[in-house]
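User: Please predict the structure of the protein below. I'd like the answer in structure-token form so I can feed it into my own downstream comparison script.

Assistant: Understood. Taking the following sequence of 315 residues as input:
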Amino acid sequence: MVQVFRALAIIAVVMIHTSSEGYAQVFVRPFINYAVATFLFLSGYLTIIETTNWSLFYKRRIIRVAIPYIIWTVLYTIVSRQPEKLLTNLITAKAIVPMYYIFVYIQFVLLTPFLGKLAKSKYLFLGWLVAPISVIVIKYYWLLTGQSLNPYVNIIWTDSCLGWFTFYYLGLVIGNRFIVKHYSLKVLILLYLASIVIQITEGYGFLLLGDVNCGSQIKLSCYLSSTLFLLIVYTILQHKQYELKNSFLRIVGDYSFGIYLSHIMVMTFLSNYVILYSNLPYPITSVCVLLLSLFFCLIGNKICGLQMSRWLGLR
């Protein structure tokens, strides 16, 4: 089931990046804003805190994403025809938007031992406050006052893991059984649907304030929706009667990292060289990008083999 949820997450990522601005952000994004939260949650959920070899943990986790990050940053920089920005792109993860989340993931990997200590302490609750307080202080205040975010604060905020803290920490806490609770799946689903309405309302409010990114995954209502979605994920993972055996979703889940890295490249190709693509309605465009990205990863894996494909970030 883990791979199925990874598949649902990468499908949502593709749908987010192929959606338009304006009202689509308000009414479509709330249904797919669980995307990155799910990836981070599953990473934390599958992380065992009681390890005795943190250097090996760092080596495996960071190298696994760092090498593909470098390769794809070079590729995207070449495609953008701005080779002079290569060093900047490598340092700041600005080649394309998805690269930023690899930076976020690496930060969480580095913080894992400390997060484990926090989760085992009586101050466990402090971990739930990091993201909400950060977004209120750094995003909401400046947006609601109509002021520009301090440039130095903006540099830290745009490359930090603060806004995503809740999701990795939740996976770590639940996966290591620091909190053991059982939830009603029906109740969680009803609460999740109610939270979608709240998210739409908040997104519309931000749109009225002139925020073109009003559908962002970094806002309080989205924290609520994503947390409820992740509790649904956790509940399903704990009960085998909910097991979903879908071979297509499992394949998409297996290649989710490759799709994540390549789908912007595929979008660029389709937009520039396939006239029909520009005339397709949403979410048909999402389906085309997803399937072509998956096909690219499958072919690449077949040609390069499993080991090389992992280093290239194809799976």
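That's the full token string. Residues 187 and 232 are 10 Å apart (CA to CA).
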